[in-house]
Design brief:
α5 packs across α9, α8 packs across α9 and α10 packs across α11. β2 and β3 form a beta hairpin. The chain is about 50% helix and about 10% strand. It is α+β, with helices and mostly antiparallel strands.
């Protein structure tokens, strides 16, 4: 067992022996590469494993990340291990972003961590006009944990407000609606229109015919009845129609139906451009 300065060239040499491993997860490689490039990679004693036949049996993602980052790392390389070790590697449950957040000392719920990720996804959608994949989000578990810790009070307030929708036959919205509210809070500090919108979504009462929030509630409930993912009623769809309803709300426009096709550009959030509620 030796600790090596593994260069991209050495990584490519070891990966050439990667003949019987599981498929490489590109988003995992990207997350490790980003950590290496940003100086956040922490060397550990978890080794790169090569069996007695010269085949790589563990460490492919770290090696691929070294090549992607074009930067060397210090890592232990253990050669000559029993080939049967492959059968028991990675059979344990991996740590989630929530696990890492708690290990770093932040008391957070699964809803709060998920809401933060939805906030980041919707924030990126405003820049790109599309609903981004997890790979494009570019956040590894350690980054997510640190960012959640920095914003936990704001995240918790948004999730608690959204969580009041629970049990009202809409959907479990604390994560998506909480992430959306967190984004609104970050974009503009005038909260009355935001609270009006979420409160109307929570209660569904005292809403006039044509109220955008009423149209949003109806759309989500129809999607629930159809089943998740059917007829394009994905998480991206729920987020998009929420933005459409929000825009109509702040513009004080009547809206009886919300629509969005997954092939359409993701809608931009309107921030009181027409002098609506503050």
């Amino acid at each position: 067992m030796t600790r090596e300065h593994v260069t991209p060239e050495r990584a490519a040499e070891l990966l050439a022996k990667n003949t019987a491993n599981r498929p490489i997860n590109k988003s995992h490689v990207q997350a490790i590469a980003r950590a290496i490039m940003e100086g956040r990679w922490i060397p550990s004693d978890v080794p790169i494993l090569v069996d007695t036949g010269g085949r790589l049996i563990d460490g492919q993602h770290r090696l691929a990340a070294v090549i992607r980052a074009a930067k060397a790392i210090e890592v232990v390389v253990l050669e000559g291990v029993d080939p049967r070790l492959r059968e028991v590697l990675d059979t344990g449950k991996p740590r989630s972003a929530l696990d890492v957040t708690r290990l770093m000392g932040t008391r957070a719920s699964n809803d709060e961590v998920a809401a933060y990720r939805y906030f980041r996804v919707m924030e990126l959608s405003q820049q790109t006009g599309t609903w981004p994949s997890a790979e494009r989000l570019g956040l590894d578990k350690q980054q997510t944990a640190r960012l959640v810790a920095e914003s936990i009070d704001d995240i918790r307030e948004a999730v608690q407000r959204a969580r009041r929708v629970e049990g009202r036959a809409v959907v479990r919205p604390a994560r998506l609606a909480g992430g959306f509210l967190l984004l609104l809070r970050r974009l503009d500090n005038r909260t009355r229109a935001q609270d009006e919108f979420i409160d109307g979504f929570v209660t569904g009462t005292e809403l006039d015919a044509g109220a955008p929030v009423l149209a949003l509630r109806s759309a989500w409930m129809e999607a629930n009845a159809a089943g998740h993912g059917r007829s394009g009623r994905t998480v991206a769809w729920r987020a998009a129609v929420m933005v459409y309803a929000w825009n109509a709300h702040v513009q004080r426009r009547s809206l009886r139906q919300v629509k969005w096709a997954n092939v359409s550009a993701f809608p931009k959030i309107d921030l009181f451009a027409d002098g609506g509620a503050r």
